[in-house]
Amino acid sequence: MSFRSLDTLNQAIVTCRRCPRLVAWREQVAREKRAAFREEEYWGRPVPSFGDPEARVLVCGLAPAAHGGNRTGRVFTGDRSGDWLFAALFRAGFANQPESRHREDGLRLQGCYITACVHCAPPGNRPNTEERDVCLAYLEQELPLLESLRVIVCLGAFAWEGALRTLRVLGHALNRKPRFGHGAEASVGPYVLIGCYHPSQQNTFTGRLTEAMLDAVLERARRLALTGAEPKAPG
């Protein structure tokens, strides 16, 4: 099935039940809840993409967090990774506010769109190969609908691999597969991919990813999107 707009695509994402393991897990989490959020009504469905339809920069993550996006209904909203990401997007001029707590908090993105390779919260933050491939079909539909898109920021190796697989399906083949790394860049068809360590607590608490490192990636993405400059050669 093909979609004519991002809105209709997101409507299809929200109603998807194609992966039984993910459906069972996201709904179990929404019923049992975390104690800190026991008074809240969890979203408990696939989490749609979000942002500016005219975006030149796409930020691609792995999947919603069980008590983040799966609770709030908006990607990267209500968890520690999102705290880091939206603060950085605000500093880079892509967001109108530095934090995101729930999907009706007034957050708006300008020049940026956010998606994920997998739209359901997976057990242990680990989708399996079949779940990844099923959900990448939505990314295959999403990229052509983002007509102004120039740069894809991949948060982590999973997103990097997912983006490459999607671009291959869309006919943008590479003779040699580029390796993921923080700050890695690759030109694939009309897009430039930029690798960035995921802003997970595992990376931010250990200093593997710092605010300065995340800011540098987003500033690079902005420059590439606006100027059309060539990506830097692999180091």
In short:
This protein has 235 residues and is α/β, with parallel strands linked by helices. The chain has helices at residues 6-14, 20-32, 69-72, 80-91, 129-145, 157-169, 201-204, 211-227; strands spanning 50-51, 57-61, 112-116, 151-155, 185-188, 191-196.
Walk me through this protein's architecture.
This protein is an alpha/beta fold and 235 residues long. It has a single domain, classed as Uracil-DNA Glycosylase, subunit E. The protein contains eight helices and six strands; from the N terminus they run H-H-E-E-H-H-E-H-E-H-E-E-H-H. Strand 5 and strand 6 (191-196) form a beta hairpin. The chain is globular and about 50 Å long. The model has no long low-confidence stretch (mean pLDDT 95).
CATH domain fold name: Uracil-DNA Glycosylase, subunit E
Instruction: Tell me roughly what share of residues is in helical segments.
Output: 25-40%
Shape field: globular
Strand content: 5-15%
User: What strand order characterises the main sheet?
Assistant: 1-3-2-4-6-5
Gap between N and C termini: 40 Å
Instruction: Please work out how many helical segments DSSP would assign.
Output: 8
N-to-C order of helices and strands = HHEEHHEHEHEEHH
